[in-house]
Amino acid sequence: MNSFHLTATGHNINYLPQYIADRHGFFREQGLDATFSIPQPWDLVLDELADGSADMALGGIWVPTMYHTRVKNYTVFAQIANRCPLALIKRGSRDGFKVADIAGKTVLMKSGGGASVGLFFKMFLRENSIDPRSVDYIQDLDGLMLGDLFQGGMGDYFVTDILSARAMADQNPNVSVAMEMVEQGDVPWSVYYRETETITPELLDKERRFCTALAKGIDWVLQHDAESFQDELAELFPNVPVHVAVAVTNTFRHNGMWTSPLVPRGGFDRWQVGLVDARLVKEPLSYETLINDGPVLAALDV
């Protein structure tokens, strides 16, 4: 049995297949004694990679992108989330809502877990021919604080994770979920990476086995309606009503949140354009610059 430590930027429902792989023993089947940590603040995942306490980090691909050649190079091996897990909440009913309605309004966006929320939402506006500069943002506050402020009357819209959004709408009849970003196309939202210079054949082999277990976790979730494992969801996400966790899981199952550990080229290229527009990089990076899909392809026997 080989030790394998993963450091992650958070505990999120879009990471569910990884949790299932751990709970159901899929990592151990691959000879991996997998352990996990969620350091605070989130960017300490980079320190855990640097000091060797972690074999791999889980987080947004925007970090390896903006660090490339500037600070340190990281190589991405796999993904867990193939879609954006955010939602847009509005006041009143969602009936008649159009994306164009957002222009000229004030949008609250949670932060604290990195820049992904703002990066994706502004990219989404640009893709829908809305100038992000036509919108006012309040985004330098904690998500729970912004949620309370939004319900108290601040702003016109609130962008947060879909689990929190549905829970809020479930408990507050005065707000509704206007749209869910999981329906808005592929993007490698959450990926696994490590420092390029530290990669060894031994680590590549462990990453292959990790990807084999992860793929099995993804397949398991896709094959089981969330109602059938709602007890596990309740244990994993105790602060959310279980019927909300079940509904979100099934929404993700049916809308491409989980497909394969392989990072898709189309989603990668789309996200790179968004990161260029956000000024994180001057030009889009090529797939091969950041991605080593060898461990996943070996795991999938492709």
From TrEMBL:
<comment type="similarity">
    <text>Belongs to the NMT1/THI5 family.</text>
</comment>
<dbReference type="InterPro" id="IPR027939">
    <property type="entry name" value="NMT1/THI5"/>
</dbReference>
<comment type="pathway">
    <text>Cofactor biosynthesis; thiamine diphosphate biosynthesis.</text>
</comment>
<comment type="function">
    <text>Responsible for the formation of the pyrimidine heterocycle in the thiamine biosynthesis pathway. Catalyzes the formation of hydroxymethylpyrimidine phosphate (HMP-P) from histidine and pyridoxal phosphate (PLP). The protein uses PLP and the active site histidine to form HMP-P, generating an inactive enzyme. The enzyme can only undergo a single turnover, which suggests it is a suicide enzyme.</text>
</comment>
<protein>
    <recommendedName>
        <fullName>4-amino-5-hydroxymethyl-2-methylpyrimidine phosphate synthase</fullName>
    </recommendedName>
</protein>
<keyword id="KW-0479">Metal-binding</keyword>
<comment type="subunit">
    <text>Homodimer.</text>
</comment>
<dbReference type="InterPro" id="IPR015168">
    <property type="entry name" value="SsuA/THI5"/>
</dbReference>
<keyword id="KW-0808">Transferase</keyword>
<keyword id="KW-0784">Thiamine biosynthesis</keyword>
<dbReference type="Pfam" id="PF09084">
    <property type="entry name" value="NMT1"/>
</dbReference>
<keyword id="KW-0663">Pyridoxal phosphate</keyword>
<keyword id="KW-0408">Iron</keyword>
<feature type="domain" description="SsuA/THI5-like">
    <location>
        <begin position="12"/>
        <end position="227"/>
    </location>
</feature>
